[in-house]
Amino acid sequence: MMPDDRKDGRLMLLWEGDRPVIGRWDDRRTAWEDPEGMHLFEDISYWVDINSPE
After folding, report:
1. Is the pTM of this model over 0.85?
2. 14: which strand partners?
3. How many C-beta neighbours within 10 Å does residue 13 have?
4. Distance in angstroms between the alpha carbons of the first and the last residue of the chain
5. 24-40 pLDDT, tens digit each
6. Which of 1, 27, 31, 44 has its CA 20 to 30 A from that of 17?
7. What ranges do the domains of the chain cover?
């Protein structure tokens, strides 16, 4: 289960079914979405933070 503190609009590396995707949480639509095309992701099975370069 995704921690609520990750649902703040940050970009995350997600797995939708068997493919990796970049997505973010949309509070208004209460779903994971593609930040470019606004497509909703339906089947998120894994996730990981994307760390910015230091």
Report:
1. no
2. 21, 47
3. 13
4. 28
5. 999 999 999 999 988 99
6. 27
7. 4-49
